[in-house]
Amino acid sequence: MSIRMLSAFAERTARGRRSWRGCASGVSAVEFAMLAPIFMVMVFASLQIALAWHNGNTVRHAVKKAARELMFDKTLTEDDLQVLVDARLAKLRPAGLSVDIALAVDTSGSVPVANVTGTYTHPVQIPMFADYNANFDIDLVVLQPAD
Question: Which residues span the domain enclosing 94?
Fold first, then answer.
């Protein structure tokens, strides 16, 4: 092989590589098609987790407000607390938001102590993943007025 043939071959090969590199039509579309589902799942997951967190904190606030009422009126029952929580959540509630309230009063000490427990479950639904239930448990200890 002569040097002239090698240089001609090298020139053709270099031209071929340049023309191949310059042809990028559709590459962006293919990359977007590969990555878009992943980004969309991440966006939906972030929104679902943020919604669950917001609803959990809203429920926590409503249970705290109801427990404060118990500090001043020790005649309140578990059903009364449930009504107070539901009334507070009625203004803020998306459809289907429900809270289970439990009340236990300990009168063994010198000051009565009430333990208010609330439970809220939020279904987290992320595309292409199994549904998950985010559980929020609220446990409050409230001092009640002595007789």
Answer: 25-143
Q: What is the pTM of this model?
A: 0.72
- Of 62, 37, 3, 58, whose CA–CA distance to 127 is shortest? 37
Q: What confidence tens digit (pLDDT) does each residue in 44-88 have? A: 999 999 988 988 998 999 999 999 988 888 788 999 999 999 888
**Residue 11 within any structural domain of the chain:** no
Q: Is residue 18 part of a domain?
A: no
Look up residue 31 and give its amino acid.
E
Per the DSSP assignment, residues forming a β-bridge with 119 are: 100, 137
Count other C-beta atoms under 10 Å from residue 70's C-beta. 22
Q: Count the domains in the chain.
A: 1
Evaluate whether residue 8 is within a structural domain.
Answer: no
